[in-house]
Amino acid sequence: KASSLILSWNSEVFKNHFSEFKQQSVDIKDFPKEVGVLFLEALYGGDIEVKQSQFREVNKIAHSFKVTWMSEKCADIFAEFCDIPKDSIAMSFLFEEALYSECTLKIEILMDILVPKFWKIDNVAE
Q1: pTM for the complete prediction?
Q2: What is the DSSP string of 45-80?
Q3: Whole-angstrom Cα distance, residue 70 to residue 111?
Q4: CA distance 121 to 115
């Protein structure tokens, strides 16, 4: 269980859910349990560390519940992933996440981060 005050402080979605709809609980079963726990711990602690394997779900939950600081942190983490030496698997992950974010979540920031980094790599290689 989580405090409605903490949840509301971090998210307009939670705030509306508790105040306007007079709900006393929120179900986040659409996300893996590990991500739900990580999400709640982050709301209480004010920071989040995300592994590459958790990135999509954490980014999705942050945007779904409109937790602005966490969405911004996901963009920062993605930028760090872009700075890691690239092999074909890492590059595939980056492009898949950027496309998923843009096409499914309707968020362009990851593509905005990714394209200039690869543009710079391509121009340096020439």
Answers
A1: 0.85
A2: HS-----GGGHHHHHHHHHHTT-HHHHHHHHHHHHH
A3: 18
A4: 10
**pLDDT tens series, the chain, 126 aa:** 577 888 888 898 888 888 776 667 777 888 999 999 999 999 999 999 999 999 999 999 999 999 999 999 999 999 999 987 678 899 999 999 999 999 999 999 999 999 998 776 555 555
d(CA 47, CA 62): 12
HEC letters along 74-111: HHHHHHHHHHCCCCHHHHHHHHHHHHHHHHCCCCCHHH
How far apart are the C-alpha atoms of 3 and 44, rounded to whole Å? 9
Task: Give the residue among 2, 36, 31, 33 at the shortest CA–CA distance from 17.
Answer: 2
Q: Which residue has the tokens 């349990």?
A: 33
